[in-house]
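Subject: Protein record for review, amino acid sequence with backbone structure tokens
Why sent: The fold of this protein is of interest and is recorded here as tokens.
Notation: Tokens come from a learned vocabulary of local backbone shapes, not from coordinates.
Attached in line: The record itself begins immediately under this heading.
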Amino acid sequence: MDRFPNYALDLDIKDSEPSEIKVGFAALPITPTIEDTWTDMDGDAYYDPKAGDTFQDNNKNGKFDAYWLAGFQNMRPANGVHDDIWTRAMVIDDGKTRLALVGIDLIGFGHDDVIAVRNMLSEDANITYSIICASHTHEAPDFIGLWGEEFKHAINANFKKYTYTQTAKAIEQAVKNLRPAKLRFAIDEKNAGEMVADTRKPEVFDNAIKIMQAIDSQADTTLGTLLVWGNHPETTWNKNLLITSDFVHYWREAVEKGVYHGDSLVMKGLGGTCVFINGAIGGLMTTPPELAVKDPFSDKIFQEPSFEKAKAQGNTLGIITLNALKDTNSSEIVEKTSIKLKARTFEIPLSNDLYRLAVALGVLDRGYSSWGKMRTEIAVFTLGNAMFLTTPGEIYPEIVYGGVESPIGQDFPLPPQEVPPLIELMKGKYKFVLGLANDEIGYIIPKSEWDTKPPYIYGSTTQLYGEINSVGSETAPIIHRESKKLLAGF
């Protein structure tokens, strides 16, 4: 059943004369209160009373009120909070168009969720278009519904309502905080590559950190900073039982408040509010236990998952970001600009049998827009010499940057379909691909690399992970085609 019948979006905002812009930021926590905790008797981070696991009924209501952590195995209840998770909004206004960009610390934020928040915004906010992107942290409460008890919907209804409300409030507060601003764009294409691995062939990376800093034109202070990098925030890995935004927490703290070695300030922060948005993370892009992260201040190497490892990663990303903004060769200031924007909804088929069952059982709380199909959305917009392309899930980097292959063992004996790479169709010096934007449809896998039947590609002896968590084999060709159409208008 379609929760928003007849909802359709087809925006086409033309370019106009560059003008002074206003930018505003706001950040509100969405951290739940963990009341009931539990004892993991065998240390497997899987709640199983048959294994002797027990829960502490701290609110005395006779049941386990768990917040199931999303990502990795199911039945992983949160046992506390390490750091707040946030909904962080950036609003840009060129006098004609008012655009909201939101980064939210969740595994995903579906298209139905996005529409719900849009419907909560007041007319006074006057938002032309909003983009809400999940960070995809694997240590926040489930917001999709798949990581709790078998055949049961896992989202806490009160948490969902609270998250909607906080996100709408953050956007409206960012509107109230609008200030005359200029934008500084920067990119670092080489220094973050050692901290991310591609766990599926072909190995194609987007190593670049892409940055947009908003500076108050009158006070010459930082209003906030947009950070974009393609990597799963899951460095603390699957045994962690504390809510956290993972390395993103330490990265934002470093850019806002400075990089510290112990109690000593090593690099001064920018101030303002950081908004993190993920990039092309399909494949999948991650910092697994076998990938070491070096402490930026010593020879210490962190291999095993830990908050120390995530902190070293976040501090390193902070140093890279601050240095990139200082580098006149990698950065550029835009004093005046206008927003050119195209956005469109369309349908994709839901052919994954497990997902179809989950929808039927109410485990996956999402309605069909029409029989067997789901509504989703993409957008393209420009700011000065920068272009932004949104994608509604975890797109494989080869679709964006090139390198789609047609390996032996594929389910469909086809040459690469998603060509040319989307980055070649984008214009400008600074090209931002915003992942998990306005939806989370799972992995967006090149059709010529799709593989659910043996023999498996690249000599794998087991079925590949991506296809299990994708809505279907037609997803990538449709996303590529729709993106190509929008980009053709620029």
Summary: The CA atoms of residues 136 and 418 lie 24 Å apart. The chain has a mean pLDDT of 96.
